[in-house]
Amino acid sequence: MRIYSTLQHYTMLLGVCSHFKDVDGGLRVLALLESRGFKADCMFYTTLISACAKAGKVDLLFQIFHEMELHDVEANVRTFGAMIDGCARAGQLPKAFGAYGIMMSKGVKADRVIFNTLVNACSRAGAVQRAFDVLSDMKSEATPVKPDHVTYGALISACARGGEVDRALEVYQSMRKDNVKGSPACFTAAVHACSQKGDLDYALSVYEDLKKDGVKPDEVFFSALIDVAGHSKDIDKAFSILDNMKKSGIKPGAVVYSSLMGVCSNLGDWEKALELYKVIRSSRVRPTVSTFNALMTALCEGTQLDKALSILKDLKKTGTMPNQISYSILLQACEKEANADMALDLFMNARAEGIKPNVIICDSIIGLCLQQIQTSAAAPQISLTMLPPADSSNIPAKDQWLTWALAIYRQTIEAGALPTIETLSRLLGCLRKPEISASTATSFEDRVLTFFGQPPSPHQTPAPVATFDVLDGFGIYDPRALSLFEEASALKIAPTFNFVTLQPIHISAESMPVFAAEVCLLTVLKGIKQRHAAGARVPAVTIKLHVDRKETYRPKGGMISMTVADKTGQAVAAVLRRLHLKPQGYASAGEIRLTVIEIQKWLQPKPLSAMKTPFAVPEKGHNSQYSVLAKTIADQQRAIRMGTLPPHHEALDMLTDMDMRHGHFHHDDFMGSDTATAPKRYTKGSRRRFSSS
Questions:
Q1: If you average pLDDT over residues 208-225, what whole number do you get?
Q2: H or E element: which one contains 226?
Q3: Residue 601 in domain
Q4: Taking the C-alpha atoms of 401, 407, 412 and 413 in order, what is their torsion angle to the nearest 10 degrees?
Q5: pLDDT-derived band of residue 604, with 50, 70 and 90 as boundaries?
Q6: Where is the composition biased (Basic residues) (predicted)?
Q7: Burial class (CB in 10 A: 0-12, 13-18, 19+), 656
Q8: In this structure, are strands 584-586 and 591-594 parallel, antiparallel, or unpaired?
Q9: What value does the mean pLDDT of the chain take?
């Protein structure tokens, strides 16, 4: 190993480590220096602190500073400047001012560099008022420190980042008033401030000031100017700025072209975007990934998916690999056009390129899977490795789409991205069992039974829902849906509930999508049912729902305001009806409640044999009183259509004397042998008074 003869040699070696942000190498130089019997001076420690600052090692630079004090080496203004700069780079504003406080306590006088570094730290943190406090400190020094273009540029950036655009422009005017010649960075900061308001005229006036001061603009300045034109929705002006840049002798680069392509994308002008792409290719400038992404966004929003896919091929030909954003843009377009097979093909390509799924990719593909399931589409053309490799044709198409949705959901979580409640709701929608609509019941009897929530006749035997088995997802969802919701609750995607206390359980479903709200309710009922089975007391449940206020006309004139439940509220109410739960309140009121008594009644339902209604299926071998009622209704409908008097049926006299309290007819009165001798009781609405006799 080479032996250095002087401290200066070690300091120079440390400077190389600082340039490459090699903190470990710098510490080895320090150890080597001490082993050779040399003592580090202020310059050496300052260089080492600067290396820590560039590497973002804030805690380590403070440790080195304390070691510097232990060795009785006094820090100078450059030492504190390096410390403040390191804190500013790391975004640790309090520690930056802590270093500034140490400097003031040691009597080290701050110079313009220190103040500018502090203002820059405030700018990065968006601490506008703190930046102006530093400006006040500059002016209140015994010998006031005059702000320069760096100070003004940092102040303008601080105001712009803090959303105080008017204040930023006031600072710019103060700079002009104080005759401070700005730098390209200073003028660029002023133009960036104009971008938030889309004030193109003011930005162009800043450009004129720049030319008056003889400052040569750079590519970043023109990029900011084009961005202002985009925010003012003046695409022609944006292209004219590009032409002006060329006339000024400045060759446009990737930064300017990326900004201009972003303008085309934001304004939805895919034709202009394609024209610009041709210009970029002819200029032999290698576009950035963001430029390609902006172009594909413009094409996808213009429903030009095929052109966007060809741009993706061009992107790969340039040697630049697409990123997550690239595939997110294309997959969202596939979802809009319901092109599920193309989406799966793109996803497989992305995975082959090592790109992990993000929330947008996950949401788009699961949304497509839900579309295919709801429309009973054919099976996907691309077979997933999770499916049996031999023959996946025997697997129903719905199950194949569901397998895709579940697999992508799992891969997204494994990649470290947490799906949103909306994505979870779409996945749960894939697990919802199809409902048997009334139209599937071919006979009049089956249609009435379906309407009253009873199982249809034996020739159509769907699984009855009267048992409400938790293991069967209450007959509404695949049981995996409830497990997924519980897992999502553990991941903080969905709300969690405490079943231990007897306090009412509150479900806030105001912002929940439909499927998530339904499964949330079923998950709560599952927890209550399990708690009840363990012998514990059950709590009440309160469900908060979103309502929309609508104005409608009164029949007699004038307007009336009413609240209407949204789709989620209607879906939750429908699930409660399907489970035979009778809540207090209405979905249109924004809150419904399940009392403890109602939940206890629901947890101890009557057996199916005891749940008879006037429309119950007649037992085999008995005459059906229901068939008499059906024939009577049909005769009345026919008479109304024909305009004739309805025929009289003696059975109606007995039907008006039903006992509905226990859910069945008086069988002896209706079918017994001594029916004729039984005393007849007629009510006010009896059918007898319509008899022709």
A1: 93
A2: helix 219-231
A3: yes
A4: 130
A5: confident
A6: 681-693
A7: middle
A8: antiparallel
A9: 85
Query: Does 595 share its domain with 493?
Result: yes
* CA neighbours closer than 13 Å in the CB half-sphere of residue 691: 11
8 Å CB contact between 260 and 295 = no
Q: What's the DSSP call for residue 387?
A: S
Question: What does the alpha-carbon distance between residue 542 and residue 591 come to, in Å, rounded to a whole number?
Answer: 7
Q: Quick check: pTM over 0.85?
A: no
Q: What's the pLDDT tens digit per position in 366-402?
A: 999 999 999 999 999 887 654 444 445 678 999 999 9
Kindly state whether residues 521 and 656 are assigned to the same domain.
no
Nearest 5°: the CA angle 485, 491, 494 is 45
What is the rounded distance in angstroms from the CA atom of residue 188 to the CA atom of residue 205?
A: 12
Query: Using the 8-state DSSP alphabet, how is residue 460 labeled?
Result: S
pLDDT digits (tens, 9 = 90+) for 79-113: 999 999 999 999 999 999 999 999 999 999 999 99
First to last CA, the chain: 129
Task: Write out the residue range of the structural domain in which residue 496 sits.
Answer: 460-610
Q: Rounded distance, CA 251 to CA 391, Å?
A: 59
Query: Is the pLDDT at 693 greater than 70, yes or no?
Result: no
Sign, CA dihedral 346-347-348-354, equals positive
217: left (phi over 0), alpha (psi -120 to 50) or beta: beta
Q: Do both 548 and 680 map to the same domain? A: no
Residue 615 in contact with residue 448, Cβ under 8 Å?
yes
Which residues face 561 on adjacent strands? 551
Distance CA 265, CA 295 (A): 6
Domain boundary (610, 643, 668) is at: 610
Look at the chain and count its residues.
693
Q: Give the amino acid at 340.
A: A
Which amino acid is residue 99, in one-letter code?
A
Q: Are residues 465 and 598 in the same domain?
A: yes
**What is the domain count for the chain?**
2
Distance CA 452, CA 142 (A): 89
